Amino acid sequence: MENTNDYMKIIMDEFNRIKKDYNVESDDFDVNSLEEIFGVSLEQINNQILDLTKRHSLRIQKINDEATVPSYSYGSDSGFDLCSVVEYTIPPLSRALIPTGLKFDIPEGTEIQIRPKSGLAINQGIMVLNTPGTVDQGYVGEIKVILFNSSSSNVEIKKGMKVAQAVLCPVFSGKFVNLEVVDDLEDKERGSNGFGSTGLNI
Question: Is pLDDT of 130 > 70?
Fold first, then answer.
């Protein structure tokens, strides 16, 4: 919720300016008057404020001239692509650490998760080995992706090739979590039913 207070201050300053210009008290305003003055409905203003409070800035540094600056293909996408800055051949059933030439300034309260590209997985058997890879907010080094070739053939990684996707996710970091040792835990609906307990059929 970066800069939310700044947005609210701008709105309140504008509201007070309008009150002064019209020489009226706030009690004299009704919804229709406000909507007429602003030229937009209060519902639209509220939706815009809610949209702004959801936004984050993710600062990116290129440390390699051949690095690809990521972008979202669609506004509804969860992740953006990460691309290789090296040429590399991954033998069958082998892994490789692929650099992206990028560093990120990850906002507090979030982490970046590195996930496989579905096209690479189905077509070439390439996956992110530690799925999802976790990049903590305190990490400021280069983002590198651990790829695993699960196929029986060599896979060629080219410069500029999309090798993974990154998702900015909200998370509770350590300073907000109290790890508390207790003698017993409260029983819950699922209890200790774990692996396979829900079956495979509907």
Answer: yes
